[in-house]
Amino acid sequence: MDSPTNVQYGKRLMPVMVDEIAAETPDRVCFSIPRTIDLKAGFHDITFQTFANAINKTATFIEREIGRSSMFETVMYMGLQDVRHFIVLFALMKTGHKVLFSSHRNSVADHTDLTKRTDCGIILYTNGLSCASIIEASRMESLCMPELDYLLDDSKHTDPYPYTKTFDQAKLYPCMATQTTSSTGLPEPVIWTHWMLATIDGQRLVPDLDGRPTVWNKFFDSSERCYSGVPLCDSAGIVTALMEVLLHGCTVVLGPPSNPTANAFEQVVTYGRVDAASLLPITLEEIASSQTGLALLSRLKYVACVGGKWMANFLTLRTTDQRFAGSLSARAGEILSQHSHLYSLMTSAKSGALIQHATDREDWQYICINPKYSDIEWRQRGSLYEPVLQKSNDLAKFQEIFETYQRSKELSMGDLYSKHPTKPYHWKHEGRANDRIAA
Predict the structure, then answer these.
(1) Which residue in 221, 245, 225 sits closest to 299, CA to CA?
(2) Which residue windows are coiled coil (predicted)?
(3) What's the first-to-final CA gap in the chain, in angstroms?
């Protein structure tokens, strides 16, 4: 996909982009969802016109029930794994609130602690997901989300509900809260601004590195329908899908609302007409042991491993379900990379997505980090290296994180990496340098 020269990359507001695309190309498909729990029934494509209308319906519903906010008040959303995560995100932006996505693997105490630390007094939930214990423990007001069928029914149109701020006005406005965790075991909220989301859009302006395009441009532009098998309550799932839909014109295909498994992957690829996938290490491990899964993987242009060891550490701390414990093994990675181009994505709730470049197929364990536009100092720790972000006025458009931590001149990612034996700028994640774990 060519990049128009008149587009203000890195200075676009996502709720505005949705409405603009809906007006200019209303029939463009943004999401595709299962028609029923039986994926053999096929998938229903959602156009931007339908998506924008659903957002407007939800914003109108929220204003009617709880009013608008002038202080970016927090509303927790607990919902099934469906497109309403994105609808709620943009609807709350339009009403002046910010959404809190709390991991479904959190305990009640974790949920409650997050609501206290974000001054959250309202929970918005979907039918089919039990939230009674959270509501009782936190003593929040509760509001049931409209059913998906109603929101996606274009015959029930609603008036436009525009987002009227410019990028310069809204760039530092909080728009979403996700979470990290530390060795204390309690989740820590991370507040995303519009600018933090826009920094990934700005990566369109980054030139190739030794002939390697940025990862976001390389494979997202090559895909038409990408299966998202990452939980939407986690920042990696919601942000990666937004990048695909809004910045790269890709249709995000969602699977069943249950946990992502190899079986779900096989059904989505078989019946969802996907040509790429973003998956957790646990799902990829299962696929590596399935002849059917590997055969279907060979149909894909690429598969992105979203998580890695930092996600594995987080999931191990947050749940007793051992399916979520562990990162992608070398054995599984070698098998998978023989069937499709496997990429590792480096993301963090604190720093967003760093500027990565495409890697060769055999280097699936490595990330290729731009030395100029990322402005990372790799500090040696024995035989390994710790990446430390350096604040740079010249790179402010890619470093929104320093608006959040204005007093800091540098920020450690808290990870340790080893160098590629021959290729410059290639780094392999080896573990954590401290007790902070990104999610």
Answers:
(1) 225
(2) none
(3) 30
